[in-house]
Each structure stands twice: as structure tokens, then as C-alpha cells.
Amino acid sequence: MPAVLHDAALQALLLEDAPYGDLTTDSLGLQGLTGRVVFAARQPMTVCGSEEAVRLFQLCGAEAHVLTPTGRHVLAGTELLAAHGPAPAVLLAWKVAQALVACSSGVASEVGRIVTVLRAAGCGQALACAGPAFPGTRAWMAKAVQAGGGIMHRLGLSESLLLCPEHRLFTDEHSLDDTVGRLRKLQPQKRLVAECGAMEEALALAASGADVLQLERFTPEAVRACRLALHTSRLHPMLVVSGGVDGDSAVAYAEAGADVLVSSAPCHAPPCDVEVRFSRDV
């Protein structure tokens, strides 16, 4: 999988960490010395970010190459990437590169874990991950989700229609049919997703023509009841379940009738433990 962070974004990460240079390295006078660094997994993980980490070392003036590409499932001890060059270069890139691989691999590994649980139970539903946990992380977060076998729920406000209760608060002078109809008329190529928090709301939105119902914080039992009520009413929107979906509950939601599972759990997954081994050229 190619790098998704361009050079300017990677340079910005380096600049954030060392806006005026590496004070310790510069003070030690390490110019003229060279060394090698290897990243390795300390635990089983789904690897992500090795391509961006390699480019960070290259931007700092070192030679570097990927040993394990993004998307690979590895055991503890597997080497992920290697870099060689001037000591100031490898020391400058080290921490930023390690953090990027650790955090993105943490997300990818949690996505992979939930997908594995679903498939082991015979559930084929897609796992979609909600937006990034923190602004500015969208690109590598989307890469990590894909590396783990998931899909992104939404990539932003510009590419999908999601009608929320907060929108409807400002359109209460119009009927629900009028609101849905307006969105369909102005965006005819987009499927309309409507967020709902109760059974009655879901039925009303489906009757108004919503293509997808995003059921917020429904229990598995409530999802099953909603599916039955929609079927009885001869309404057949896609059901997306969001809120409370994680590795412990994913199968229950899938078996209750959800078509797509949306989870923010991977976005808050702890970083993976990435070992960094340095050696000095003699």
C-alpha cells in the first residue's frame, strides 16, 4: 500500500517535533558519525505506516527501505523497516516515525481483530470505522482502517449525505417528506443516510424515503425489532448500526440484522509496541 501522507505533511510532523533542530544531537556534535536503525514488532500486529516512516528517514537524509509493508499481519520480532545514514538524520526521524507506525498499526490491528471475530462467527457484514479520533489524522487513519480489513464510514462532510436530528432541528417548519425530498432532488446521485435514535423515528424516516437508516445506540434486541417492524411495513432500507459496536458486541449486532457495523473503537485503540534497535557503524 503506498504512502498516503505527502512530503509536505511529513515535513510538518518533523517540524512540529524539532522546529529549531535536535538540541541534544546538535549539542553532542555527532556530525560525521553514521548508524543503522531497525523497527521491529514487539507483539502480534497488523502493520501500518511503514511506508510513511521510511519516507521520514529519507527526508532527513538517511537511506531507508520497507521490510514489512502495510496490511501484513505479523508476529512479535518481525522487522518492519530499516534505515541507515548520518547519526543526526536517523535520530531526527526516529521518534516521529516510531509514533506513526505504532499508532496506525494500533488502529489497523483493532480493525483486524473485530473483522476476524465477525468472520469466525460466519458474519460477512462490513466493519466501517467512524471518523478520526482527532482532527488532522484522517489520511493515515483511513489507511489503517483499510489495512485492517475495514472501510471508512465517512471521509468527510463533502462526500456523503447524512441527515441528523441536528439538521432536522432547523427544518422543523418543513415536513419530513419535504426535507427528504429536497435532499433527493438536489443530490440525486447520492444515497440518503438518516440518523435515528428510536424505533418510531426510524420508521418515519424509512417511510419518507431514506435509503439507509443509521441506528444510533440501539441494542441488538432493538435492532432486531426495528428490522422486523420495517419488514412488516414493507420498508427495506439498509440498516447501519452505530454506537456501542466493538469486538465484544459486533457479532450480536450482525446476527440481529444490521447490514453494516460502524465502530469508533479502532480509532481509540492503543498504539502497538514497536521496538527500535540502533547500531553504530564502526
Automatic annotation (TrEMBL):
Residues 108-275 form the Quinolinate phosphoribosyl transferase C-terminal domain. GO terms for cellular component: cytoplasm. SUPFAM superfamilies: Nicotinate/Quinolinate PRTase C-terminal domain-like (SSF51690), Nicotinate/Quinolinate PRTase N-terminal domain-like (SSF54675). One of its GO terms (biological process) is NAD+ biosynthetic process. Keywords: Glycosyltransferase, Transferase. Residues 22-105 form the Quinolinate phosphoribosyl transferase N-terminal domain. One of its GO terms (molecular function) is nicotinate-nucleotide diphosphorylase (carboxylating) activity. Gene3D superfamilies: Aldolase class I, Quinolinate phosphoribosyl transferase, N-terminal domain. Signal peptide: none annotated. Belongs to the NadC/ModD family. PANTHER family: NICOTINATE-NUCLEOTIDE PYROPHOSPHORYLASE [CARBOXYLATING] (PTHR32179), PYROPHOSPHORYLASE MODD-RELATED (PTHR32179:SF4). This is Putative pyrophosphorylase ModD. It comes from Aquabacterium olei. The gene is modD.
